[in-house]
């Protein structure tokens, strides 16, 4: 579990399927990441649990620390086809523009580059998703390449551990 000033991040499990479907049912939320049926959510969450077991990391439910209310997801995802570990975040629209994505992602980066010892983390963001691109840039990511993930175009941003640990403003 990762705890920040306002948030708690915990591993997602198959028990989160109903909530996962609700999170992704908002057209504005799923515009860039897609929606899920309950069966699709259960399958995706089983895959996330396997990553936690096999790699020691995965996606997390992000909850408000004070209430335990789940407000989004953030964490690390291994992409075998790219040989890359990606950070990703998705939040319920009611919780946009409050700095939660940046706060959760900062904590995940500290975990990934610290205890996990990752050398580089990517962020795969749809070209029209200017809000997520702004979060990535604020965190120190720079554009690496254009690609396609799950049949969707994306800009792949990257942040190297050495750049993350370098002194100075980000």
From TrEMBL:
Give GO terms: molecular function aspect only.
acyltransferase activity, transferring groups other than amino-acyl groups
Matching InterPro entries: Acyl_CoA_acyltransferase, GNAT_dom, N-acetyltransferase
Q: Which Pfam families does the protein's record reference?
A: Acetyltransf_3
Highest taxon, organism lineage: Bacteria
Q: What sequence ranges are listed for the domain N-acetyltransferase?
A: 7-162
Q: What is this protein called?
A: GNAT family N-acetyltransferase
Q: Which organism is it from?
A: Streptomyces mangrovisoli
């Amino acid at each position: 579990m990762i705890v920040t000033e306002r948030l708690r991040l915990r591993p997602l499990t198959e028990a989160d399927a109903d909530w996962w479907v609700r999170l992704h049912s908002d057209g504005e939320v799923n515009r860039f990441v897609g929606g899920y049926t309950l069966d699709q959510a259960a399958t995706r969450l089983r895959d996330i649990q396997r990553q936690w077991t096999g790699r020691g990391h995965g996606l997390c439910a992000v909850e408000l620390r004070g209430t335990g209310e789940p407000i989004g997801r953030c964490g690390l995802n291994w992409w075998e086809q790219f040989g890359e570990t990606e950070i990703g975040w998705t939040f319920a629209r009611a919780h946009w523009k409050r700095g939660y994505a940046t706060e959760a992602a900062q904590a995940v980066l500290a975990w990934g580059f610290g205890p996990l010892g990752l050398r580089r983390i990517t962020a795969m963001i749809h070209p029209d998703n200017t809000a997520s691109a702004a979060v990535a840039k604020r965190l120190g990511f720079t554009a690496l390449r254009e690609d396609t993930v799950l049949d969707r175009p994306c800009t792949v941003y990257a942040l190297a551990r050495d750049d993350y640990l370098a002194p100075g403003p980000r």
